[in-house]
Amino acid sequence: MAHWLFKSEASTWSWDQQVARGEAGEEWDGVRNYQARNNMRAMKRGERGFFYHSQKEKEIVGIVEVIAEAHPDSKAGDPRWECVDIMAIAPLPTPVTLDMCKAEPRLADMVLVNNSRLSVQPVSDAEWQVICELGGVAD
Q1: CA–CA separation, 99 vs 113, rounded Å?
Q2: Which residue, of 6, 54, 62, 70, has the fewest CB within 10 Å?
Q3: pLDDT tens-digit series, residues 99-131
């Protein structure tokens, strides 16, 4: 299974808000970048991703699961834009900051380290394991 990273400004949509949605999850709407949209089109139900707070915090704070595959973004009004629905699974016991990722040689090729502006990005299996290790998660 593939792994992913979803970025959100905590002031717009936070981890706590995601958790509060429970099993209903939330549509990952508002993405207006073709590469990020295409990443969502590639996602399969049951795949997991990291929830990343961008802007001030710049840290991975939790793990989410894709609960609905790509479908029209209900807030877009334009059929070109699609999104997935995600559900919070668990917080990271220790948030993993962008600085920690940049300092970790095993993450040198990670998209987050090299293109931190991309809002929805793939995470390799090896990168997933390293982040889980740094965050105190036994995956």
Answers
A1: 9
A2: 54
A3: 999 999 999 999 999 987 899 999 999 999 999
